[in-house]
Every structure is written in C-alpha cells, then in structure tokens.
Amino acid sequence: MSEDEIDYDAPTPPYRQIAAVIIGEIERGVLQPNRPIPSEATMIQRWGVARDTARRAVRYLRDEGYVYTVPQRGTFVSARPGDSE
C-alpha cells in the first residue's frame, strides 16, 4: 500500500494515517519549517477523504506541535527544536 492510500481496515484512524505521512515528510525534509503543508483540498484529493478527516489530521498535527495555523494564510510547518533557521 502506498502512502497515498488510506487503509480503512487498519486500527489507526484515517486522519492519523494522513498525519503520519505528513510527519514523515516533515522529518525527511520534504516539508520545510515555515513553509505550508498541503491544503485541505489537496488532502481530500490526494487521499480521497472527507473534509472533516483532513481537518482532523491538521488539528492533530497542530496539537502535536508539527504545524501552526495563521488565519487567512494557511497552515505551516513548525520549526522543530534543534532546527537551524
């Protein structure tokens, strides 16, 4: 199964699967600090999920400190401890 597919039979909920992919992209440097993460619309298209699922993934990432949201601008990768800017 590719990272662009959701395993609906897995014990991990879809929003956590999406968050795990985005966390992996952050940790590998694909998504850089202070740069935007994929939009909700992009997540919906990429993973074929409902808007609420995409929002829950973003909320989880924000709650875990991986991203921050700027109203009317978007959601961006947080600078992680030890990152040089």
From TrEMBL:
Domain HTH gntR-type as annotated: residue spans: 12-80
A single BP term in Gene Ontology: negative regulation of DNA-templated transcription
SMART domains (alphabetical): HTH_GNTR
Annotated keywords: DNA-binding, Transcription, Transcription regulation
CDD domains found in the cross-reference section: WHTH_GntR
GO-annotated molecular function: DNA binding; DNA-binding transcription factor activity
Protein name: GntR family transcriptional regulator
Source taxonomy: Bacteria, Bacillati, Actinomycetota, Actinomycetes, Streptosporangiales
